[in-house]
């Protein structure tokens, strides 16, 4: 039963299902070396994504038990614009790169083979 405000009511079938939003996970360059040593992968995500969202998303995609999720909020850098290649001239305009969240995921070592194989 769904109430008029389109929110699921406790005890219904809709409350038990999981809905995944569009989560963008970009793998960070040095994570392949740390994955072989410590079973850790690092991803770059949006700031609004939480630890439980990341954990359930990885578990649903790859069928892997995630032991631990650590997150770090990274602020964007302020950069200034340059014009010209031979003799660069600094312009007065500055811009800021986007903020992001770095997620470090520790995977169960017995199920590590599922992540290294490519999905077809």
Describe the structure.
This protein has 120 residues and is α+β, with helices and mostly antiparallel strands. 23% of the residues lie in helices and 32% in strands. The protein has four helices and six strands; from the N terminus they run H-E-H-E-H-E-E-E-E-H. The strands form two sheets. It has a four-stranded antiparallel β-sheet. A hairpin with a 5-residue loop joins strand 4 and strand 5. The radius of gyration is 20 Å and the shape is elongated.
Shape field: elongated
Q: How would you sum up the major sheet?
A: 4 strands, antiparallel
Mean pLDDT: 75
| Portion in helices | 10-25%
Helix-strand makeup class: alpha+beta
Q: Within the largest sheet, what's the order of strands?
A: 1-2-6-3
Low-confidence stretches: 9-16
Q: Count of helices? A: 4
Listing every helix as H and every strand as E from the N terminus to the C terminus, the arrangement reads: HEHEHEEEEH
First CA to last CA: what distance? 38 Å
Radius of gyration: 20 Å
Strand tally is: 6
Binned strand content: 25-35%
